[in-house]
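Work Package 4 report. The design task specified in the project plan requires that, given a folded chain encoded as structure tokens, an amino acid be chosen for each position. We show below one input record used in the internal validation round.
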């Protein structure tokens, strides 16, 4: 996956480079154009960042690569926006057919697009539109892996026991970036505190005394 930022542009391409790039748009030009250049990334002028072609250095040369799809962060933001709008039908275009979705509140993952959509339809039918996901932080550096910190709000006020974090893995499928794996971890309503450490210590002691128990984990 490519991560493309204007901040990586350190020099302006020469006139000859611009001419070569301009000629690459003609029907007779090859789909991939290699040009010797020192920059790691150079934009083709006059095109938007979201729907554009960029060049990336590969082994001392520059290759034109197509980026006509949303970044991973954009897909994930759109995913939350659709859920907040209770527009579950549109969510299907953001997840792959074989997506695996793990919500750690449930005993097993949801497998496949249809099963995931059914889960979110139950969620949206059971909750008011006044209950909204709010993104606190979201990673943007890797379009194939996106992490999100979020919480729920009711009419703009924090909802109790609703803090969470999620991870999304994305792939480009048929020219469209989609979610292929997701995991949600939600704040527990009951917080055992130090008791959790005691439980972990007890289980560890049992495993040390009876190693065969590890086969049952």
């Amino acid at each position: 996956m490519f991560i493309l930022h204007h901040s990586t542009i350190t020099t302006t391409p020469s006139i000859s480079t611009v001419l070569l790039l301009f000629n690459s748009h003609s029907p007779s030009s090859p789909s991939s154009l290699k040009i010797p250049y020192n920059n790691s990334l150079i934009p083709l002028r006059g095109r938007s960042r979201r729907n554009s072609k960029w060049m990336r250095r590969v082994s001392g040369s520059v290759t034109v690569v197509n980026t006509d799809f949303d970044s991973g962060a954009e897909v994930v933001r759109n995913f939350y926006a659709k859920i907040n709008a209770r527009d579950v039908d549109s969510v299907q275009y953001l997840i792959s057919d074989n997506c695996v979705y793990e919500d750690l509140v449930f005993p097993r993952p949801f497998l496949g697009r249809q099963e995931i959509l059914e889960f979110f339809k139950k969620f949206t039918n059971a909750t008011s539109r006044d209950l909204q996901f709010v993104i606190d932080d979201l990673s943007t550096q890797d379009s194939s892996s996106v992490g999100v910190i979020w919480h729920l709000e009711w009419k703009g006020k924090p909802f109790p026991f609703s803090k969470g974090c999620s991870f999304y893995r994305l792939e480009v499928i048929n020219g469209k970036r989609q979610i292929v794996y997701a995991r949600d971890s939600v704040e527990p309503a009951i917080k055992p505190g130090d008791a959790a450490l005691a439980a972990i210590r007890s289980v560890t002691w049992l495993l040390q005394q009876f190693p065969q128990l590890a086969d049952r984990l």
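Residues 194-209 form the longest helix (16 residues). Validation will be extended to a larger panel in the next phase.
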